User: Which sequence fits this backbone?
């Protein structure tokens, strides 16, 4: 029979908890970075005809408003 002392089991469970927390931290940090990168890749447009604000991921320069169909240029900040 294996002799397991309380200190050994406590060390095992604390170490396992720390490893699980590190894995979760890495996973959610990577997910947040991927989300922010996707948000930064969007281009924002403001329709001068209907005042609708919309974003497109692939559009560069000019894009058609999804609400009224008017072609707008990129919103400049
Ligand atoms: Zn519009």
Assistant:
């Amino acid at each position: 029979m294996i002799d397991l002392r309380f200190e050994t089991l406590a060390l095992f469970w604390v170490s396992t908890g720390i490893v699980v927390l590190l894995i979760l931290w890495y996973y959610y940090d990577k997910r947040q970075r991927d989300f922010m990168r996707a948000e930064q890749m969007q281009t924002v447009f403001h329709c001068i005809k209907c005042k609708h604000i919309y974003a497109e991921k692939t559009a560069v320069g000019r894009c058609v408003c999804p609400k009224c169909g008017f072609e707008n240029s990129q919103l400049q900040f």
